[in-house]
Amino acid sequence: MYSPVSAGTAGWQWLCPSAAGSRPGRCLGSLPPTAAPAPPAPSLPRAQNPAITEAGTALPAQAVSNLNINDVLGNYSLTLIDALDTLAVMGNSSEFQKAVKLVIDTVSFDKDSTVQVFEATIRVLGSLLSAHIIITDTKQPFGDMSIKDYDNELLHLAHDLAVRLLPAFENTKTGIPYPRVNLKKGVPPDSHNETCTAGAGSLLVEFGILSRLLGDSTFEWVARRAVKALWSLRSNNTGLLGNVVNIQTGHWVGKQSGLGAGSDSFYEYLLKSYILFGEKEDLDMFNSAYQNIQNHLRRGREACNEGEGDPPLYVNVNMYTGQLMNTWIDSLQAFFPGLQVLIGDVEDAICLHAFYYAIWKRYGALPERYNWQLQAPDVPFYPLRPELVESTYLLYQATKNPFYLHVGMDILQSLEKYTKAKCGYATLHHVVDKTKEDRMESFFLSETCKYLYLLFDEENPVHRSGNKFMFTTEGHVVSVDERFRSSLWEDILPAGEHSLKAKPSEPKAANFSSNCNRVPDERRYLLPLKSNYMRQIDRMVGLI
């Protein structure tokens, strides 16, 4: 049993017994067998942003084949594909067109390669769809990104990949997909029956877009069936979901409920599916999930910027009892402030973001897993993840507070100082000694660099074109328009599996603790979090 310690010293007042956690990763269950004035905003011209400038360079033709092949990379030019829309967002039409032609000429999914369904969907399928939408957009908001004689080749590639992923949804008693599939042979005979909530339940945005572009309900249907199957397995007591489930029995193998690895994008896609498709049931599920998260995962004082007590923090709990399971958070949880911004819960987002930024300030990176009781990393590597940058970008868009530009500058300078290597940017093997690994994840280009670039580019078409855009969980840009809010197949869904279409409107989450109107304009040039609360968080992570 841990002993309580006060917020003013080293820990949290609501400590409970700890339970061992699982090895961190994007998908846990699918492992292979406001008081002080803020300083003025920094100026960051595009030409002086070296990380982003290097990220905007398309891969040469000789770099098409991956050397380090595994079930994430898939041996299908992952980084090249994942970075396509980043080039478009940066306005680099020549490199975008060159990269698209390279994909069309060289990429094939007809490979004896076993891949993660989730990673292939968000990194590859999502990027192909995003680039196709950009190419075929008659408004061309990012400049001339058209491809001469383009004949929907990227859409055909996306369709081909999705068809090869479909066997994962077959022969499961719950409708929840297998975590892995061989692109030529289907589900491997020795495949595990366990998958994580995020991996199985975060396919709807990409599969739904594909279905609506093709006029074929198959892809959206299987993805939506998986979401509903997971949703039906939530606890009757708390309304929470676990993080690892058996796809045949529906039994929860991992009973941890949290916002990080194994769970994160499930909640994200409930909201984003509603934003994109307008299906009311998606918003209803999100509202219910968000309320249950507030009731059972949130600890600390009720308000972010007022009152007494510990800073708000979302912890890992048992899905059935709501009791604390461990005393760590992982870096993927840093996405949650950005999601809170999307629903207007800006005040709570400010507080949670400040906690992750304090950890960054201490180490110059976010450790994959951080133990907030021990004030030390449990898992010390940093694979260039984007989640803190994403939340920083969205908070700046919501508040226009230059504090978040300073956060972005701090992150950028840390990346330049600690992760830059001869041929790119390297994963940090250990955030304390800053040793590196010979690996740069594709999401560094598709997300981390993109969000940093957009943070400082006020005039980017994403912000100024008049179009509405949404980012997928992999950071791919998708236009929010009417064609994705209409489908032809509601009448073929099984009875009870479709709901009324919501009118295009601003999504509103039920019962959140505060809203955008509680961040008045006069606070724009003050610290977003009062200085005494900021110091409290700094003490919590050992900065002071």
TrEMBL record:
Enzyme class, broadest EC rank: hydrolase
Stretches with biased composition (Pro residues): 34-43
Chain coiled-coil ranges: none
GO molecular function, one term: calcium ion binding
Residue numbers binding Ca(2+): 473
Main localization of the protein described in the UniProt heading: endoplasmic reticulum
Protein name, as recorded: alpha-1,2-Mannosidase
Organism: Zonotrichia albicollis (White-throated sparrow)
Species classification: Eukaryota, Metazoa, Chordata, Craniata, Vertebrata
Gene: EDEM1
